[in-house]
């Protein structure tokens, strides 16, 4: 069998989904709606991210296929409902990319990256008739990611520090205000200042061109590995986590850090 090209595989997947959704197809697939598929769509998106972060090309190949399945599955449902087909979505994105890159598809201009981003946001706001500049960042994004996107949008119009010193100062200021709120025992103020502290740390990460979301995931993974090391060490000594003291666990933690 000759190897199918990308367009042929794309069409093959569309036809498989149609068969799964059609008469005599899979009962589970036939029962799904756009909303019922949201958790699976979200899960596949995160699995793509994980494959990228782990630099695992085999996993990325598989996960991109899984994510494409969900994109086409959603489009098949809208097609069945007489709303639109995947070709309409593809036309939309093609037209949008050409329209928002006049420096590539129109008259050639010497344009810098920050100008590209500003032009993109300006065109997006005009097309979607948004009243406020920061509108359009999905509210259900993970909070760290949404914080970064909000900061980036503000930066595009110059609302940003150019040097790192005031960012460091802001981080220290927010942490000090958090400590002061704790000392007076004001829970609402503690929550507010904790949020301000995290927001300032996201801004610091953005200055370093580091994703706070990715950095935190790596820290969580590191914690899991070290904590599992504690559990393993205790088991070797015929002890459980519940039996161990904090001092015992902390000593093993320090050993794990040194590995």
Low-confidence stretches: none
Mean pLDDT: 91
Q: How is the biggest beta sheet arranged?
A: none
How many H/I helices? 12
For the record, give the distance between the C-alpha atoms at the N and C termini, rounded to a whole number. Answer: 51 Å
- Looking at how many chains there are and whether they match, the oligomeric state comes to single chain
Secondary-structure content class: mainly alpha
| CATH architecture name of the largest domain | Orthogonal Bundle
Taken from the alpha-carbon principal axes, the silhouette is extended
CATH fold label of the largest domain = Helix Hairpins
> Percent of residues in beta strands?
under 5%
Instruction: Calculate Rg over CA atoms.
Output: 25 Å
β-strand number? 0
Tally of separate domains: 3
Structure keywords:
single chain, Helix Hairpins, 3 domains, mainly alpha, 259 residues
Account of the protein in words:
- With 259 residues, the protein is mainly alpha-helical.
- The chain is 72% helix and 0% strand.
- Helix 3 packs antiparallel against helix 4, helix 9 runs antiparallel to helix 10 and helix 11 (212-236) crosses helix 12.
């Amino acid at each position: 069998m000759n190897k199918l090209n990308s367009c042929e595989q794309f069409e093959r997947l569309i036809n498989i989904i149609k068969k799964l959704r059609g008469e005599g197809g899979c009962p589970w697939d036939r029962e799904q709606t756009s909303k019922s598929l949201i958790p699976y769509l979200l899960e596949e998106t995160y699995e793509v991210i994980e494959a990228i972060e782990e630099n695992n090309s085999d996993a990325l190949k598989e996960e991109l296929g899984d994510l494409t399945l969900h994109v086409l599955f959603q489009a098949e449902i809208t097609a069945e409902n007489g709303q639109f087909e995947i070709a309409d979505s593809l036309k939309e994105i093609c037209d949008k990319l050409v329209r928002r890159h006049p420096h590539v598809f129109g008259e050639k201009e010497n344009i810098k990256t920050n100008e590209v981003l500003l032009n993109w946001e300006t065109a997006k706001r005009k097309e979607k008739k948004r009243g406020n500049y920061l509108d359009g960042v999905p509210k259900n994004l993970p909070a760290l990611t949404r914080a970064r996107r909000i900061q980036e949008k503000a930066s595009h119009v110059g609302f940003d520090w150019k040097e790192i010193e005031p960012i460091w100062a802001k981080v220290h200021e927010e942490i000090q205000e958090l400590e002061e709120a704790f000392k007076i025992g004001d829970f609402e103020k503690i929550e507010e200042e904790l949020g301000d502290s995290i927001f300032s740390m996201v801004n610091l990460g953005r200055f370093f061109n580091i994703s706070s979301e990715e950095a935190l995931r790596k820290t969580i993974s590191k914690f899991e590995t070290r904590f599992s090391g504690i559990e393993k060490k205790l088991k070797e000594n015929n002890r459980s986590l519940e039996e161990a003291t904090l001092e015992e666990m902390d000593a093993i933690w320090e050993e794990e850090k040194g590995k």
